[in-house]
Amino acid sequence: MTTSLEEFLTARRAAGRRLLVPYVTAGAAPGWTDVVRAYADAGADAVEIGFPFSDPMLDGVTIQEASDRAIAAGTTVTEILREVTALDVGVPLVAMTYGNLVFQRSGAEFCAALATSGLRGLIVPDVPLEEAGDLADAAAKEHLDLVLLAAPSTSRDRLRQIAGRSRGFVYALTRMGTTGERGEVPEQAARLGRDLKELTDLPVLFGFGVSSPAQAAELARHADGVVVASALMRRLLDGARPRELGEYVASIRRALDGAVDREPDEHATLPRHRRRPDPQDQVGPLPRG
Amino acid sequence: MSISEGTLITPADFTGAGSAGDVSERGKFGVFGGRFVPEALIPALDEVAAEYEKARTDLAFIREFDHLLRTYAGRPTTITDVPRFAEQAGGARILLKREDLTHTGAHKINNVLGQALLTKRLGKSRVIAETGAGQHGVATATAAALMGLECVIYMGAVDCERQALNVARMKLLGARVVPVTNGSQTLKDAINEAFRDWVTNVDSTHYLFGTVAGPYPFPGIVRDFARIIGVEARRQVLELTGKLPDAICAAVGGGSNAIGIMHAFIEDEGVQLHGYEAGGRGLETGEHALTLTAGSIGVLHGSRTYVLQDDEGQTIESHSISAGLDYPGVGPEHAWLKDSGRATYHGITDAEAMDAFALLARTEGIIPAIESSHALAGALKLGRDLGPDATILVNLSGRGDKDMGTAMKYFNL
Predict the structure, then answer these.
(1) How many other β-carbons are positioned within 10 Å of the β-carbon of residue B297?
(2) Fewest C-beta atoms under 10 Å: which of A101, A241, B111, B362?
(3) Which segments constitute the Tryptophan synthase beta chain-like PALP domain (chain B) (predicted)?
């Protein structure tokens, strides 16, 4: 039995590490698998691989453009899976795509194909909680972690259900809107991170709008880590090579590690995910020292 | 169950039975429908669904909608016997439901008035909408102007160019028109973009969805507001002929005019229901919008339905001479009506539709929308099959003024 995405991330978190999951759209550039390797070498804790879809409703312009390029270049699910099978980068790989690709044959068949190719997780942003039941069962059967998303608009009751059904980690949206780079860390992200940490022991990762190392570090203070997508894909679309993308991921890695180093934590003796936020503290628990 | 003398729509009209779509089942029509949207939109969809559930049984809301239909939209619309046109249909009797005579010239006005009222009930001040040919955009801009709502319309950049007149109309009505330059730059991309706006501005904004597609609760809401077409027509045909029609014909893009006229007849088992999709240049050319006739089951724009897609699940660009039918998806209730066998769907090519377009103009003095011309062409074929004793009700969903540019080119006028 290989290590699951959830076990892998939880173990890294237990070692005091802020989690970093960079993203790449498969097929958006020739040699995209080198990008995956560069991410892993630069300190990624998992890598998210986007399977391009023609109508990516939740994505902003950057990832739509990357998806269009990949599709125009003839990228197919079969081809992505073939290339992923040959990849061994030492950290789990997570597929991200839309429902229409997943259900094309059946959710069970898609999950089986991902698992066979060595992927450990699946994120489907247009399949929310009430549509996820069968897919969650199919994924579980293949030991594939189906990651659910939580938004700032999600009610507390739904957050509890999402935290209960999600596997691998909980993908927390920093804000309402689509993927894309933005400046500051919104208060609603801090609140969502705090609420989710109260509800679950699963790792909680922020995504959407993570656009600088400093911001990634700031966000990670409110959860367990970050997913970085558009900031990397914009660089890729602008012609950045795998090595340069790796360097950018390394800079985020350093910022996250620095955030850990910088912040003293008087509760460091407790496992981090067991701690509850101090009600006096508007931004949630301090990171581990 | 009338609420008062002379009303068009009653509480029973809203809740007409005969559909598998059940609110408690989260908008599932058999295996079709559902809510395939980002988590961030779920609370907004819940809010719309909850408010609509209250509204549809609220007499004050129904009265207000009814008042607007009568005094603003110009309802009831008449039915028209078209014997000279019907000569080409083997002598069958053809009756047109004249949605072309409504304010703004198409059936879209019914839905936008209902949803604009709903927007006010939701306490929201801004509406957004997608549009292909511009008809739903114009209708939305109209309702927004009437009710003092801020209005933003997403329209594919290619469509903006093709339908410059409608862009000007929307601007004149006070709407902001945003050309969408992503993807194929047509209706499906406008829908993607509208969803992106909604997820970002959901606190202030209602997405005034234009057809019976999309996530629950939109397919049911849009159907209910369009249902008046069939409710009126059923009474009118009974009054005129003493019996129900033998068949209903309607064009199907997303499917709102078709469900609007079909829904009141679903339980009348003797009434055949026929939907006509855009066959474009023909099935074999691959340039068509034959979603139900040649598509396969998928998930697009929030619901499980028939989709034009490749083996991988990437949507395929549709084609039709009629922008209103040029969409690679279709409402989930039509998918269910097809699979249950209650309705039958066929393709009509660009050429067949344009022939019917010209024929109705010459024989009856009515210039139909090219969308509606697909239903007219279907009725000509169906009449020949059913014989001279048959009565066929056709939804003339809109007028053809907007299509004069296309007609000038096509007929070299």
Answers:
(1) 16
(2) B362
(3) 72-398
